[in-house]
Amino acid sequence: MKLFHRTTAKNAKAILAKGFTDATGSFGTTDRYTGVLLTSQPVDIDTIDITLIEVELDLDEDALAAYERPEKGKSYREWLVPAVLVNAHMNLRIIAGGKVDSE
Q1: pLDDT tens-digit readout, 53-80
Q2: How many structural domains comprise the chain?
């Protein structure tokens, strides 16, 4: 399954080297959540200092169903997946944004 993750160039470099780590935040809600935010399509890629990572997972939608965050009005889907699960099943590539070979 092909998904996308947006981050800074510095964080993208760390992700490519060591894999994802769980982030904790509100992720656009009033509650606190932990995981890696993945989307079904690129989001906000025109924002300055954003690097877009394509995350190819060898998992299907059923395996990710418990992590989906459905929200009315969005033109894309979101998942908040534990980093340990993403790291065990991923293949990554940078597809847009800042250079990851410099800090």
Answers
A1: 999 999 999 999 999 998 888 899 999 9
A2: 1
